[in-house]
Amino acid sequence: MINMIQIPDIGPGSFWITIVVSIVCLAGGGFLAYLTLQKALKKRNKNIIKEAETEGEVIRRDKILQAKEKFLQLRADHEKLINERNSKLSQAENKFNIKEASLFQRIEEIQRRKNEIEAIRKNLSIQIELVDKKEEDLSKMHKQQVEQLETISGLSAEDAKSQLVESLKDEARTGAMSYINEIVDEAKMTANKEAKRIIIQTIQRVASENIIENSVTVFHIESDEVKGRIIGREGRNIRALEAATGIEIIVDDTPEAIILSGFDPVRREIARLALHQLVTDGRIHPARIEEVVNKTRKQIEEEIIEIGKRTAIDLGIHGLHPELVRLVGKMKYRSSYGQNLLQHSREVANLCAIMASELGLNPKLAKRAGLLHDIGKVPDDEPELPHAIFGMKLAEKLKENAEICNAIGAHHDETDMTTLIAPIVQVCDAISGARPGARREVVESYIKRLKDLESLALSYPGVTKTYAIQAGRELRVIVGADKTTDKDAENLSYEIARKIQNEMTYPGQVKITVIRETRAVNYAK
After folding, report:
1. What's the rounded Cα separation, in Å, for the pair 49 and 447?
2. From the DSSP assignment, how many helices (H) and strands (E) are in the chain?
3. Does residue 181 carry a pLDDT above 70?
4. Residue 385, number of CB atoms within 10 A of its CB
5. Burial level of 61, CB count in 10 A (0-12/13-18/19+)?
6. Cα–Cα distance between 464 and 480 in angstroms, integer?
7. Alpha helices, DSSP H only, in 316-361?
8. Which residue has the higher pLDDT, 255 or 140?
9. What is the Cα–Cα distance from 521 to 519, expressed in whole angstroms?
10. Dmax of the chain from CA atoms?
């Protein structure tokens, strides 16, 4: 701020001069201030511009650095991509070279074989020419020999052929008649035995030897009052139960017992369990009966599958078809001559594994065939085939091993044996069925049958002792050497076998062995 100039007091004339001088001084001071402000503003602008230039230079340098880094990264990625592509191309080139070398090798091999074939073809052509030449020579020689024979015999070739054909016809006719007579005699000898075998197997398929023990189940009740509830009003409950289960229910005067009769053990078991649940629950009416029977049937089916799985696990057999597992479990409710079929099959499987191991064969395959050899006895329907053939076809359908299928079909000699496992299964099946106690039979009838066998053989002259062994499957007859010749022993064996066939009832077959021996006895005193 400009200080005011002190003007001395003057007169009035000089007043206006003083004012003008003051105005001029004020104007000069403002101009100076303006110039000073202008200089300050310029200096400030220069500083701002300088700072902006400095900051811009820093930003420019940062951007350049970032651009360089981005460029280096892109170049590294590009080089990596190029290296990967080069590696893949190198690998593809190596594979191509290997294939090319292999192709050239195959071409050389083909060319070599082609040359060999060409050489063989030329050799064959030469041999064919030689054979043709020899055939011509043989034909000429044959013609010459025929002419010589005709000259010597005085007969033409046609006449000689006619005489030879007639003589061959007579010889063939005589041989055929002899063969036919042998077949007829053999058929007469084995017809009765074969018929019995077929009948026994047929009965075995639908029932068992001990009909009462294997076709009837006794259901015990607490009191006879339950019988009336089971019968129901006008017999509607018992009719509904029979219709649902397919089992005949016999309610008679037997105290505290109801008899379930039927040839199908599975149905009898369903009826028994359903009846037990109905009696325990106390609600017995047709709708409830049908519900309980259906529920019990499902439980039995689940139990059958579980039994099959457990059996396969116990025997170490894996990969069985689910249908075969179900059939194996179903064996628990089937019997053969009173012998439980599942226990019989397990026993045969173990015997087969042991025998196959002793013979150096595959024990797992033999065990599998032994377990499945009787699956034809537990079909869902009743096929018109022997159980061995049906089991074989079923195993083939379910993609079982060809050796196992053959063993199943051949264990009763109903098809040819093509593997070593088949005779093993057949032998082990016979062992399991023939061992004492395997097939259920009343003790009295069993002892009586053995005694009858021994007595029958003792009735023949010359027989000194008889022994029924192997549960009655073999009869050994000892004859005196002084009274019986070897030919008589053979005839005696045949006659005893025929008499057993005609007069006795027995499961399977009986082997008759006649032993003729000479004993020299002395005493030293």
Report:
1. 134
2. 15, 8
3. no
4. 15
5. exposed
6. 7
7. 322-330, 341-358
8. 140
9. 6
10. 208
- Angle between helices 421-434 and 402-410 in degrees, nearest 10: 40
Within 10 Å of residue 259's Cβ, how many Cβ atoms? 14
Q: How many residues does the chain have?
A: 525
pLDDT, greater one: 133 or 24: 133
Residues 6+ apart with CB under 8 A from 327: 308, 375, 378, 394
If pLDDT is split at 50, 70 and 90, which confidence band does 5 have? very low
Q: Which residue has the tokens 């003790």?
A: 443
Q: So what's the pLDDT on residue 468?
A: 85
Band of pLDDT at residue 64, cut at 50, 70 and 90? very high
The C-alpha atoms of residue 212 and residue 220 are separated, in whole angstroms, by 17
The pLDDT-based confidence of 489 (bands split at 50, 70, 90) is confident
Q: What is the CA radius of gyration of the chain?
A: 56
Q: Rounded distance, CA 391 to CA 373, Å? A: 7
Max mean pLDDT among 77-91, 175-189, 267-281, 466-480 falls in: 77-91
Torsion of CA 289, 330, 432, 496, to 10 degrees: 70
Residue 467 corresponds to which tokens in the numbers above? 């022994």
Complete DSSP assignment for 202-257: HHHHHS-SSHHHHHEEEEE-S-THHHHHHH-GGGHHHHHHHHHH--EEE--S-TTE
Distance, in Å, from the CA atom of 283 to the CA atom of 285, rounded to the nearest integer, reads: 7
d(CA 388, CA 406): 10
- Decide if 504 contacts 491 (C-beta within 8 A): no
DSSP string, 373-435: TTGGGS-SS--SS-HHHHHHHHHHHTT--HHHHHHHHHTTTSS---SSHHHHHHHHHHHHHHS
Alpha-carbon 83 to chain mean position: 53
pLDDT tops 80 at residue 311: yes
Contact 450, 510 (CB under 8 A): no
Q: Which two tokens stand for residue 312?
A: 């396969």
pTM above 0.70, yes or no: no
Alpha-carbon distance 281 to 289, whole Å?
Answer: 11
Structure tokens at 458: 């003792």
Region of residue 261 (left: phi > 0; alpha: psi -120 to 50; beta: else) = beta
Query: 457-481 burial string, b = 16+ CB within 10 Å, else e?
Result: beebebbeebebeebbbbbbbbbee
First and final C-alpha spacing in the chain: 179
State which amino acid sits at residue 410: A
- Closest Cα partner for 361 from 453, 416, 289, 425? 425
